[in-house]
Structure formats: structure tokens, C-alpha cells
TrEMBL record:
Keyword set, alphabetical order: Lyase
EC number(s) from the headed UniProt entry: 4.2.1.159
Domain of life: Bacteria
UniProt protein name: Oxidase EvaA
Keyword Lyase among record annotations: yes
């Protein structure tokens, strides 16, 4: 157990009002029992992984899991028009599945305390099932995935959500996961490492730094409308609080119709020229490879590092793998403005080279500020200078610990000041939370960072 694990548990006690003592004791015990060691390991020493002699791409000897390769991008979007970068190519589709059950009108979700090698605090709350295809088909020759049958055999429960969604388009090449919610009526015992937690409690835990993992957040954002009304009480029903309630529930009139939002988004995709080409990792311009890692020449953005993992809480007790290591903490923020008494989120039509359809709707600001010493992304400085009284939500949350090493973003919901304009640049649009939730019934509209913030917004009422 690390000091980060201890700090995480203290944060639960301090920030998660209304979370039962049963869960707090259970999670503390899981943390205490977590025997996990993650050591940085030179890339040249990763067992089972090797650089291809011709391309320099880094791949597993089985041909499965994922490959680190190169990407070259040319675009008319943004201040940087051409660059090269490493990217993770993981073409298989994984399952992110959440079992839900209603007891006396209260929805419960079956979550698990899961260790991932890239987690800063080791143990986080993940969905019932969180598994790549390589893992649940047991390419690693380890143990099976608990509860998998509920998501591969729909007759085991009622499917409420089943949609393909993207993951981080700046670091993954066309990565998709099947986001699923399955409702059960029969009693399903919680296996070792799993816990039935009320939906209200999970949303309270979204206020705890680094606890609810990215995969849980994306599935929570996809929950149907019937799960959005919660016990409430966190916000008074006046001002921005009431505007957020109307935004989530679909009450009131949106600034733009659904058809107008889709037309804006289609226009944004057609306005820019984008060319993305897969290239060899060997000799990638602007990047250098050492025996230990692959890094950018200026030390910014990210690097590719290797780790050796030993644990008693996964299907396999020991393994090696590469991870993408971001430099510094990122910032992910929605500017929120009440328009006609309904809270609207300032959505950005965001280009990310690894997305299947190149563009998805993202937050107002999504970047690592340290990567922009010169030209700054639109609205970044507005968010950074926001007074504390306008911040509605502010929590540091982790990204995918199975592929990224110590990747964290500060997630913010920020109330716009009176001076914030209603008219915004062409690549931005005011959209209600309910409109975004409706779009999540389909894949490839809302990026994973915006989905995380949408789940956080739902936690406010």
C-alpha cells in the first residue's frame, strides 16, 4: 500500500458525504490488502515485447494486446498544422459493463476495486466488467473475467445501454470500447473485490480525487434518463443550481435545437482538412528513442515507458508492458452558462488524430497548459483565472491506468460570468446536458473527457 493509497482513502472520508460506512470499511480493507508493485523498466528489457526490426514499432510477441507505432498528421485545424507522434494502436473492442439493480426504488451498481499498473494510487473503482478482448479471451493465460456472461449473453439480464464509444483520441488510434449497462432482477452476490453501491453514493464518490476510474465515468454518462433523477440536496433550487437541473432533465428550451446542433457539428467536420497517416515508429521526426524510453525532443507532451508489474489482485500475477506517460497534469473544463434559465455547456468540436471520425464534441478546454508556452487554446486563460465562487465542480481524476502511467486531469465545471459572450467562435456551440445525453445513445459524438464531465455534472443533484 502506497502513501497515495492512504491519501485517497482519507479523501473519501473527507469529501464523500452520504457514503455508507460499509463501503468505506470494505474499500479500506481492499487497499490494505492490495499487494502490488510497479517498477519502471527499460523498454529494451520488457519480457514478451520487442521492437520490429523494419519499422521500429513496439509490439507483443503474441501479436495481441496493442502496438506502439507512429502517426503523421497534417491539418488546417488549430495553430499547429503538421506533426508526428507515437500512438497506441489497439484495434480490438473491449467491454466496459455495469450491472445495475433497483431495490425499493433505489438503483444500485456493482462496482469493483481494481488495480491498474498506471494508477497513481493503485486501486480505483471500476465497472463490474472492464476487460479488453485479449484479456477476456484469456490470451494472457490467466484467470477468467467475473460476470462476463451478463454482457456476452444478453438473456442473463435486460440490456439498457449498449453503445460503442471512443477513448482518448490523442493517444489511441481508433480505440473503441463497448459501453454496456445491464439490469438484473435476481440476487447477484458480490464476488471478492466487488461491491453493490447505490448510484447516489457513486456520484458522491466522483468528488474524491482519483477514485472513480475513467471506465466507470464513461459508462455512468451513458445511463438512460430514468437513472438521472437522484436524491438531490447538493444544490439549492435557485440560480445556476436550478438551471443545471433543467439542463439535465430536459426541461426548458435549449438555445439550439437538436437539428441545429447536429448541423453545427457536421459543418465543423467539413470545414477542416485533415490527413492522418500511420508511419513507422523508427526515425519519427521530433522524437528520440533510448533504451529506457521514447521521448519528445523538447521534453513536453508525453513519453513511452516500460513497467514490470507484480500483484495478487489480477488475472496474471506478473507481467511487463509499455505505458504512455503524460508530462504534467491536464485540464478538462466545461464553461457553463444559464441561457433562458437552462444551463448550457460550451462544447468544442475537437479534432483528435486517433478518433475514428477525426472529430467529436469535447469540453470547452481540454489540454495540458504546460504544452502551450506560446499560442494558447481558446478560453484556457479564462478558465485558469476563474474566481473560486464560480467553480461548480473541481476534482482531479485519473485516466486509463491500463495504458497510461500516472495520467491525471483536473476536471472543472465553471459558471460563466455576466461578461461571457453568447456568441462564440465557429468551432464552439452551447448545448444542454440533456442534448448531450441523448447523443450518447449513439457512438462517436461525445469524446471521453466530455463524458467524464457529464457524469460529474450528474453528480451535482
Amino acid at each position: 500500500m502506497t502513501s497515495a493509497d492512504l491519501d485517497s482513502h482519507r479523501n473519501i472520508d473527507a469529501r464523500a458525504d452520504g457514503v455508507g460506512e460499509g463501503f468505506l470499511s470494505w474499500f479500506a480493507e481492499r487497499v490494505r490488502m492490495s499487494g502490488c508493485q510497479v517498477d519502471l523498466t527499460p523498454l529494451n528489457e520488457l519480457r514478451g515485447w520487442a521492437f520490429d526490426e523494419a519499422t521500429g514499432n513496439l509490439a507483443h510477441e503474441s501479436g495481441r494486446f496493442f502496438v506502439v507505432e507512429g502517426l503523421h498528421i497534417r491539418t488546417t485545424y488549430g495553430p499547429v498544422r503538421e506533426w508526428s507522434q507515437p500512438i497506441i494502436n489497439q484495434p480490438e473492442i473491449g467491454i466496459l459493463g455495469l450491472l445495475v439493480k433497483t431495490v425499493d426504488g433505489v438503483p444500485y451498481c456493482l462496482v469493483q476495486a481494481k488495480m491498474e499498473p498506471g494508477n497513481l494510487n493503485t486501486m480505483q473503482l471500476s465497472p463490474t466488467v472492464q476487460a479488453t478482448r485479449s484479456n477476456y479471451t484469456r490470451i494472457h493465460r490467466g484467470g477468467g473475467t467475473k460476470y462476463l456472461e451478463y454482457f456476452t449473453r444478453p438473456q442473463a439480464g435486460r440490456v439498457l445501454v449498449d453503445v460503442l464509444q471512443s477513448e482518448q483520441g490523442s493517444w489511441f488510434l481508433r480505440k473503441r470500447n463497448r459501453n454496456m449497462v445491464v439490469q438484473v432482477d435476481d440476487t447477484v452476490p458480490a464476488a471478492d473485490g466487488h461491491y453493490w453501491l447505490s448510484l447516489h453514493e457513486i456520484r458522491q464518490l466522483l468528488r474524491v480525487d482519483g477514485l472513480v476510474n475513467m471506465d466507470t465515468r464513461t459508462v455512468l454518462s451513458c445511463l438512460p434518463d430514468s437513472f438521472l433523477a437522484g436524491p438531490g440536496g447538493a444544490l439549492a433550487e435557485e440560480g445556476m443550481a436550478a438551471a443545471i437541473v433543467r439542463s439535465v432533465s430536459g426541461e426548458g428550451r435549449p438555445h439550439h435545437s437538436a437539428a441545429a446542433v447536429l448541423s453545427w457539428f457536421t459543418s465543423a467536420k467539413c470545414r477542416h482538412e485533415l490527413a492522418v497517416q500511420r508511419v513507422p515508429l523508427r526515425g519519427l521526426p521530433g522524437w528520440r528513442r533510448t533504451p529506457e524510453e521514447i521521448t519528445h525532443d523538447d521534453g513536453r507532451h508525453f513519453s513511452i515507458v516500460g513497467v514490470t508489474v507484480r500483484t495478487n489482485h489480477r488475472e496474471v500475477a506478473e507481467w511487463n508492458q509499455p505505458l504512455l506517460y503524460p508530462q504534467g497534469r491536464g485540464l478538462v473544463a466545461f464553461v457553463v452558462k444559464s441561457i433562458g434559465g437552462v444551463a448550457h455547456l460550451l462544447v468544442h468540436a475537437r479534432f483528435q488524430a486517433g478518433l475514428l471520425d477525426i472529430m467529436e464534441m469535447g469540453p470547452t478546454v481540454q489540454c495540458n497548459p504546460e504544452n502551450y508556452p506560446g499560442a494558447r487554446p481558446e478560453f484556457l486563460d479564462y478558465v485558469l483565472r476563474a474566481p473560486a465562487e464560480r467553480i461548480v465542480y473541481d476534482t482531479v481524476l485519473a485516466e486509463e491506468g491500463g495504458r497510461f502511467y500516472h495520467s491525471q486531469n483536473r476536471y472543472l465545471l465553471l459558471e460563466a460570468g455576466e461578461d461571457f459572450p453568447l456568441e462564440v467562435p465557429d468551432d464552439f456551440c452551447w448545448v444542454t446536458a440533456h442534448q448531450l445525453t441523448t447523443l450518447l445513445r449513439h457512438g462517436y459524438y461525445i469524446n471521453v473527457e466530455a463524458r467524464s464531465l457529464l457524469a460529474c455534472l450528474h453528480s451535482l443533484w
